[in-house]
Design goal:
about 500 residues, globular, alpha+beta, five-stranded mixed beta sheet, 11 helices, 19 strands
Length: about 500
């Protein structure tokens, strides 16, 4: 049932896959505490964990339906139809689907009933009649097992072929490969020498696209053809308008280096990355729209229905908030929002970094609520100053003598002026800071602990921003507005 539906979905909207639609519905209906647990436990593998969970549940349901069919084929068919109704509802609930997109699910249900009927007849033949020899069931049983194996193989092949078909029919992929980014009117400032600490265990100052963290609600990455993309700007504005991708390319684009941070990032976590972005300043877009008095929020909505609430003043001031089309000198990767996304300095991604963005509504916080706000998170998400130790790793074993510690710290829009390290319960000592690229990017640091004695030790890190404000020591979980506290890790000197 799932395999045929997945195969058929290759010929429809990418969101028509009941497997992905059902997973997305589960995400939407999952209570916030369970979402937080999944992200904290599985990190960027949370979607993979969900896929395995759905597959496990589907396997159990299949077995139960098979057992039910031995008692009543009609009831088993009713169970398949009920499952198809649930899956169709999940498909229809997706923001980018139409009624026609439930067709793959219907075809899958028909195939499921047909296969069930076939296998039921085969299993019935394994029970010898009174006039038959007791051993007569042997060949029939082998036939049933072989047929079941062939069914599983066919399902796996259909699923694999559907992936290839979807890729070959994907106009968005061809469009991305053919896209040549325009030259920016304002190029990003050249990175100063010394932004990267010379240590192979340190992360790269510019995070490669393939390594950039990904946290979003899309199980199936939207494949949006830029020729079909448009951005609607409306709501409490004097001038509502729609912008196409070609019109966006014709604007005065700018480049900037900017660090993005996920609100789910724990203290010392890796849900943070730094990249060079190319895009159009959102303040210019809003200047064209002319927000009305009383508006204080922009509700951005993505192709897959996700929404984020961004304070209007943040998008209207002189910070480099962009409607981005490029990432590290190439078009945005699909998983990072191709063809267009938002990047905003100083705010966690859940209130600002909408991928696959298609709608901007100027409104008020008291009138509208975004996706995560309705699930218990703060409606405004300013990034908290943070620092982490990248080397050595927790519980690492390092040789005695000089032990070099290194890490990163960030305080977007304010910058980092000082980082201190404490070994065990000793005095706080200043770390060596790498060069600063901008106030909107992270900053690397290095600390050499000389004459490290063998034994178990700990290291703690804290940072100061450009105004001299110390990073808070108070521990807080990511919910509802980001984690805080000083990272402390254990390691052993040998």
């Amino acid at each position: 049932m799932f395999a045929v539906a997945q195969f058929a979905s290759a010929f429809f909207n990418s969101a028509s896959s009941p497997f992905f639609a059902l997973g997305s519905a589960i995400i939407d209906l999952t209570p916030p505490w369970l979402k937080d647990f999944a992200i904290a436990t599985f990190g960027t593998n949370d979607k993979l964990a969900l896929f395995f969970s759905i597959a496990a549940v589907a396997t159990v349901l299949s077995a139960l339906i098979g057992l039910l069919a031995k008692r009543s084929f009609a009831l088993a068919c009713t169970a398949i139809i009920a499952l198809a109704v649930v899956m169709s509802s999940a498909v229809a609930a997706r923001a980018s689907t139409s009624l026609l997109d439930i067709t793959p699910t219907v075809l899958g249900a028909v195939a499921g009933i047909g296969i069930l009927q076939w296998l039921s007849r085969l299993i019935a033949a394994t029970t010898p009649r009174p006039s038959q020899d007791a051993d007569a069931s042997g060949p029939s049983r082998r036939t049933f097992l072989l047929s079941s194996a062939l069914t599983l193989a066919a399902a796996a092949i259909a699923t694999g072929v559907s992936t290839s078909l979807a890729a070959s029919r994907n106009m968005a992929d061809a469009a991305r490969k053919a896209l040549r980014l325009p030259r920016p009117r304002t190029k990003a400032k050249a990175l100063p020498a010394g932004v990267q600490i010379d240590d192979p265990n340190m992360p790269q100052f510019i995070t490669p696209n393939r390594n950039f963290y990904r946290i979003d609600t899309a199980l199936s990455v939207p494949q949006v053809d830029p020729a079909q993309w448009s951005l609607r700007v409306h709501g409490m504005v004097e001038n509502e308008f729609t912008m196409t991708f070609d019109e966006l390319l014709d604007q005065e684009l700018v480049e900037t280096h900017l660090t993005l941070t996920c609100v789910s990032n724990p203290v010392g976590g890796d849900l943070v990355g730094n990249a060079k972005w190319l895009g159009y300043p959102l303040r210019h877009l809003l200047e064209r729209a002319i927000p009305q008095a009383g508006a204080d929020m922009v509700l951005s909505t993505s192709h897959d229905g996700f929404s984020a609430s961004t304070p209007l003043e943040v998008l209207s001031d002189d910070r480099m908030a962009l409607l981005a089309i490029g990432m590290n000198d190439e078009p945005l990767p699909f998983e990072h929002g191709f063809p267009v996304r938002m990047v905003v300095p100083g705010l966690y991604g859940y209130v600002s970094a909408t991928k696959w963005v298609i709608d901007l509504e100027v409104t008020r916080f008291q009138d509208k609520a975004a996706y995560w706000t309705t699930r218990g998170w703060s409606e405004r998400g300013p990034i908290k100053m943070s620092s982490r130790i990248d080397t050595p790793r927790p519980f690492a074993k390092v040789p005695a003598g000089e032990v070099v510690l290194g890490g990163t710290a960030w305080a977007q829009t304010r910058g980092i002026s000082r980082v201190q390290v404490q070994i065990d319960d000793g005095p706080w000592e200043d770390a060596e800071l790498a060069a600063e690229a901008s106030l909107d990017t992270w900053r690397q640091w290095r600390f050499a602990w000389k004459d490290a004695a063998p034994g178990a030790h700990s290291a703690t890190v804290r940072a100061y921003d450009s105004q001299g404000l110390l990073q808070t020591r108070e521990k807080a979980n990511p919910v509802p507005n980001g984690a805080s506290g000083w990272q402390r890790l254990q390691f052993t000197v040998q």
